[in-house]
UniProtKB/TrEMBL annotation:
Lineage of origin: Bacteria, Bacillati, Bacillota, Bacilli, Bacillales
Annotated family: Belongs to the sodium:neurotransmitter symporter (SNF) (TC 2.A.22) family.
Residue stretches spanning the membrane: 12-30, 42-64, 88-112, 132-160, 172-189, 209-235, 247-276, 296-319, 340-358, 378-401, 422-444
Record organism: Lysinibacillus alkalisoli
Coiled-coil regions, chain positions: none
Protein's recorded name: Transporter
C-alpha cells in the first residue's frame, strides 16, 4: 500500500462508510417498505438481519479490502489468485454500475424537488402533489437535467480523491444529516395522533409478514449497509492498519440502524397524524409528505429541510458506487483519477438515461411486468445484491486461510479471539445459509 492514499482519520472513514450505507435505502426505500410490510414486525426483522447478517458481512468486506490493500476487482484476485471466485469483485463493479443507473435517477428527482423547494414551488403549487410528481418523472428534460446535476456533483467529489473529496464531503454532510433528522423527528412527534404512527412503526404485528417481506428485510439490510457489491472493500482498502475493523463496522451498523429508526419516527407519526395510508409505495416521500408539511406551521421550511437531508444522504451513498468503478480503472490501468472519473461519470450518465426515461418516452417498454427503472431496481436489490453477498460470504471463509483472516480481524483491535471465532462461525454457516434460503424462496415468490 506504499504511496496509496488513506483516510486521514478513523472518524473520516466511519463517516464516509456511514454515508455510503445511509442513503435511499434508509430514507426513501425503508419507510415505504415498512409501510407495505406490516410496520414494527418488518423493522424488527430488519434489525435482526442487520446485526446477524449485515454486520458480519460488513466486517468481511472490510477484511478483504484492508487485507489486500486493493479495490474491489484487485482485492479478490490478490487474496485468492487461483480460486474461481477471484472474479467476485467484477460482479460488484457491474452491480454498482446498475445500482447507480437508477439510484442517480432518484437523486435527480431530489435535485429537482430541492430546487422547487428553494423557490417555494411545492407547497402551494397549483398541481396536486401526485400530479406534480408524475409531471417531473415523465418530462424528459426535467429528469435528464436532474440526473445530470446529480452525476456532476458526484464526479466533482470523486475526482478530488479520498481525503479532499469523499472524506471532506462526508465530514460536512453526515453531521448535518443527523441534525436535520433530529429536528424533523421532534416536530413529527409533537403532531396530533403521532403516537399511532409510533405504535405502527415499533409494535410488531407478524400477521402481515410474508416471504416477500422477509426477502425485503434481508435485502434492506444489504441495501442500507452497502454490502454485497464490494463498495466497502474499496473504501476499506484506504484504511490504516492501526484501526479496529470490528469496532468501525459496529459503529457504522449502529449509525445505520439509528438513521432507519429516526426515518421511521420522522415519517410515520406525520403520516398517521393526517390519516394517510402508510403503504403508499415509492412515491410516499414525494407525494405524501408535501401533503403533511402543508398542514404544519412553517411547513415549507420543514419540507425543504427534509429534502436537503434526503439529498445529503443520497449523494454520500452514491459516492461509494462511483468510487468502486473509478478505483477499478485507476488502480488496474494506472490512469489519472480526474480523467477517469469524468469518463466514468459520462458513461454512467448515459447508462442511467433508460431508467430516467422509463416513466416517460420509454414507458411502453415493459419487461417481466416492470418498466426499465423498476426492473433494474428489482434485479439489483433482489438478485445481484444477495448473490454478491453470498459469494463474499463463501469467499471469506473458503478461499482465504483462516489464520490470515484472523490476523486482519484482530489487527488494531482489542476484541478477544473468541469474538473472532463467533464471527467466523456466523460467516461459515448462518450467513450463507440464510442468504441462500431467503434468496431462493424470494425469487420463487416474486417472479
Amino acid at each position: 500500500m506504499a504511496g496509496k492514499e488513506q483516510w486521514s482519520s478513523k472518524i473520516g472513514f466511519i463517516l464516509a462508510s456511514a454515508g455510503a450505507a445511509i442513503g435511499l435505502g434508509a430514507i426513501w426505500k425503508f419507510p415505504y417498505v415498512v409501510g407495505q410490510s406490516g410496520g414494527g414486525a418488518f423493522f424488527l426483522l430488519f434489525v435482526v438481519f442487520t446485526m446477524l447478517i449485515g454486520l458480519p458481512m460488513l466486517i468481511a468486506e472490510y477484511i478483504i479490502g484492508r487485507g489486500s490493500g486493493k479495490e474491489a476487482v484487485g482485492a479478490y484476485r490478490k487474496l485468492a489468485p487461483s480460486s474461481w471466485m477471484k472474479q467476485t469483485g467484477v460482479l460488484g463493479v457491474i452491480g454498482c454500475a446498475l445500482l447507480l443507473s437508477f439510484y442517480a435517477v432518484v437523486g435527480g428527482w431530489i435535485i429537482v424537488y430541492v430546487a422547487l423547494g428553494i423557490f417555494n414551488q411545492i407547497i402551494g403549487n397549483p398541481m396536486a402533489y401526485d400530479a406534480l410528481f408524475g409531471y417531473i418523472i415523465t418530462t424528459p428534460w426535467i429528469t435528464i437535467l436532474g440526473l445530470f446535476v446529480f452525476m456532476l456533483l458526484n464526479v466533482i467529489v470523486i475526482a478530488a480523491g479520498i481525503q479532499k473529496g469523499i472524506e471532506k464531503a462526508s465530514k460536512l454532510l453526515m453531521p448535518l444529516l443527523f441534525l436535520f433528522f433530529i429536528i424533523l423527528v421532534i416536530r413529527s412527534l409533537t403532531l396530533p395522533n403521532a403516537m399511532e404512527g409510533v405504535k405502527f412503526f415499533l409494535a410488531p404485528n407478524f400477521s402481515n409478514i410474508t416471504w416477500e417481506a422477509v426477502l425485503f428485510a434481508l435485502g434492506q439490510s444489504f441495501f442500507s449497509l452497502a454490502v454485497g457489491f464490494s463498495c466497502m472493500v474499496t473504501y476499506s482498502s484506504f484504511l490504516s492498519k492501526k484501526e479496529s475493523i470490528p469496532n468501525a463496522a459496529t459503529t457504522v451498523v449502529v449509525l445505520n440502524i439509528l438513521v432507519s429508526f429516526l426515518a421511521g419516527l420522522a415519517i410515520f407519526p406525520a403520516v398517521f397524524s393526517f390519516n394517510i395510508e402508510p403503504d403508499a409505495g415509492p412515491g410516499l416521500l414525494f407525494m405524501i409528505l408535501p401533503t403533511v408539511f402543508e398542514q404544519i406551521p412553517f411547513g415549507t421550511g420543514f419540507l425543504l429541510l427534509f429534502l436537503l437531508l434526503f439529498l445529503f444522504a443520497t449523494i454520500t451513498s452514491s459516492f461509494s458506487m462511483l468510487e468502486i468503478i473509478v478505483s477499478a480503472f485507476v488502480e488496474n490501468r494506472q490512469t489519472s483519477r480526474k480523467k477517469t472519473t469524468y469518463a466514468v461519470g459520462a458513461v454512467m450518465f448515459i447508462l442511467a438515461l433508460p431508467s430516467a426515461l422509463s416513466n416517460g418516452v420509454l414507458k411502453d417498454i415493459i419487461l417481466f411486468n416492470r418498466n426499465i427503472f423498476d426492473l433494474t431496481d428489482f434485479v439489483v436489490s433482489n438478485v445481484l445484491l444477495p448473490l454478491g453477498a453470498l459469494l463474499i460470504a463463501i469467499f471469506i471463509c473458503w478461499a482465504i486461510p483462516k489464520q490470515q483472516i484472523k490476523s486482519e480481524f484482530l489487527l488494531g483491535s482489542k476484541v478477544s479471539p473468541q469474538t473472532f471465532e463467533l464471527w467466523y462461525r456466523l460467516m461459515q454457516y448462518l450467513v450463507p445459509i440464510v442468504i441462500g434460503v431467503v434468496f431462493i424462496l424470494g425469487l420463487i415468490k416474486t417472479t
